[in-house]
Write a structure and sequence with these properties.
The protein is α/β, with parallel strands linked by helices. Helices cover about 35% and strands about 25% of the residues. The chain has helices at about 45, 50-60, 80-100, 115-125, 165-180, 195-200, 200-210, and strands at about 1-5, 10-20, 30-35, 60-65, 105-115, 135, 155-160, 185-190. An 8-stranded mixed β-sheet has the order 1-2-4-3-5-6-7-8, with helices on both faces. Helix 2 packs parallel to helix 7. The termini are far apart.
């Protein structure tokens, strides 16, 4: 489904896309995957990633894809008004989805491809209390790798092709996760470029998320 809401901060209507399992029952709660598109993409294009909604149906997930304000909004990883609005749009759409549908608060996941992978890192580290797991796919990384320590208890699955120009950065972030002894999985696709590994490995992303739910915050 394509939906819109009024984005107050931008003073305009903003579209987003959502998939709800066919047997949705408001008496039950469902895992939610927030999916962030890449540079030049859109919420509708993200929903058309091969296997995304079919796997959501199979595993019983709600999937929501925000526009992120702009096709090049960067979800807050870059400063400036567009970056702020991009981040805000994602958080607005998440709040609307949680208000309108029965979402399991312990099973909210964030996934994104390329620019959206960078947004996954950024929003994952900025709002660590929200996410039960992260999946940056072929991520264009933000500059704040030092903030990984903020999500040292958050499970992460990273996917990147070994022929992708971003693979060196992916390995660097994976190396830092290893040093932090994080709960992570890294899939490097042999012969993989920038696009295909993102949807090829969606079954592994769902399988990873299925293994993890949000743990209660440790007592201080």
């Amino acid at each position: 489904q394509s939906r819109t809401y009024f984005f107050n901060e931008a003073d305009r209507k903003m579209g987003y896309s959502i998939y709800v399992p066919k047997e949705y029952d408001k008496k039950k709660s469902y895992p939610l995957m927030v999916a962030l598109h890449g540079l030049g993409g859109s919420d509708r294009g993200m929903m058309r990633y091969r296997g995304l909604t079919q796997l959501a149906q199979k595993h019983g997930y709600i999937v929501v894809a925000p526009m992120g304000y702009s096709s090049s909004g960067w979800y807050g990883t870059r400063r400036g008004r567009t970056g702020e609005l991009s981040e805000k749009d994602v958080m607005n759409v998440l709040a609307i989805t949680r208000r309108e549908l029965k979402v399991n608060p312990k099973r909210i996941y964030l996934m994104g491809h390329s620019m959206g992978g960078g947004g996954t890192w950024h929003l994952g580290m900025k709002y660590p209390e929200l996410w039960a797991g992260l999946a940056p796919l072929a991520p264009a990384p933000p500059r704040n790798i030092s903030d990984l320590s903020k999500i040292k208890d958050t499970p992460v699955i990273v996917v990147c092709g070994d022929e992708d120009g971003l693979v060196r950065a992916a390995r660097l972030w994976v190396g830092r996760m290893k040093a932090l002894k994080m709960n992570y999985e890294y899939i490097e696709v042999k012969g993989g470029g920038h696009i295909r590994p993102a949807y090829q490995k969606l079954p592994e992303v769902y399988a990873f998320f299925n293994k993890h739910s949000k743990k209660p915050a440790p007592e201080k």
